[in-house]
Amino acid sequence: MTALAFRRRYPDANLLLCNENHRFGGSPILPATKRALSDDLHELIDPLIVREWHTFYVATADGPKRVTGGVAMITPEQIHAEIVDRIPLEAIEVGCRILSCDNSSVVLAGAGRIDCDAVYDLRQSTGAQMVPQRRLKLVVRDYQLDESHGLHFPVLLDATLTAPPFYSRFLQYLPLGERILRVISASPVGEVSVTQQSRGFRGKGLISEQVFELAVQKEMYRDVAEGRGYPILPPYLGSQLIAAAAIAQSIVIEYDRHAGSPWKSRLRF
Q1: Are strands 155-158 and 49-60 parallel, antiparallel or unpaired?
Q2: In CA terms, which of 88, 117, 127, 165 is 20 to 30 Å from 267?
Q3: Residue 13 in contact with residue 6, Cβ under 8 Å?
């Protein structure tokens, strides 16, 4: 996200993006509620959206509710495609081991030392260590149905399997086509996974399955907000990417402030 933000702000900059993985984008990303996006983040986020809905459902012990509000589906594959499209191949180093870095240089295995005006070390394993209070196990399953599932809008929260005030296990249903349905099951790591409810879907044929973990805050779900008429959705619904976009813009703004000054070489995130 930082590389994309720099490319938009400085299209002629001599940029080098180093990634120890061979593909960008990371793990599957939960849908993001558009109300969590500020106007200035749309420029970065919008190209990464592959599907969008203007309404979604939530289901709790109080019953189902329909909520008007944009929901965006963002995929790691689209993030990778956007980076490859926006950043020249000669400015990308993938599958490279980063031996060390400081404010003005990077040492890559096999490539030696590269001197730079500014270095931004955004690897999760460096800097301040944030210990997650809880981890969720998410199982993402895609189904090809024999008949239409009849679901026009996503169910972002089916928390009928657990109790308030904190919904620690839930299901999501995302209609990806008339007969293609994505079901996301979430449970705290170490506990028995929630089982998929049949919900009357017939001819379920499993296309794919992915299992991964997500670090979340301890208070994962709040009960119905007083006087607002809808549940507060969890902050981690797509917030990994939204947070990354916000950090990326902050870095570019900070670079703008110090560009051309001695402070530029001290910037490190």
Answers
A1: parallel
A2: 88
A3: yes
Burial of 269 (0-12, 13-18, 19+ CB in 10 A): middle
Q: What is the pLDDT of residues 17-46, one digit of tens each?
A: 988 888 888 777 778 777 767 777 888 888
Instruction: With both helix axes pointing from N to C terminus, report the angle between 2-9 and 76-86 in degrees, rounded to the nearest 10.
Output: 30
How many CA atoms, within 13 angstroms, populate the side-chain half-sphere of residue 46?
6
State the Cα–Cα distance between residues 133 and 244, nearest whole angstrom.
20
CA angle 184, 190, 195 (to 5 degrees): 35
190: Cβ–Cβ under 8 A, 6 or more apart, which residues? none
CA distances from 109 to 21, 205, 268 (A): 14, 45, 21
- CA 155 to chain centroid, in Å, comes to 18
Angle at 84 between CA 94 and CA 235, to 5 degrees: 85
- Rounded CA gap, 242 and 209, in Å? 25
DSSP string, 157-216: EE-TTS-SS---SEEEEEE-SSSEEEEEEEEETTSPPPPPP-TT--S-EEEEEEEEEEEE
Q: Which pTM value belongs to this model?
A: 0.73
Token digits of residue 213: 């973990």
112-115 and 205-216 as β-strands: parallel, antiparallel, unpaired? unpaired
For residue 85, what are its two tokens?
A: 């499209």
- List, for residues 54-101, the tens digit of each pLDDT value: 988 888 777 788 888 788 888 888 999 999 999 888 888 888 888 998
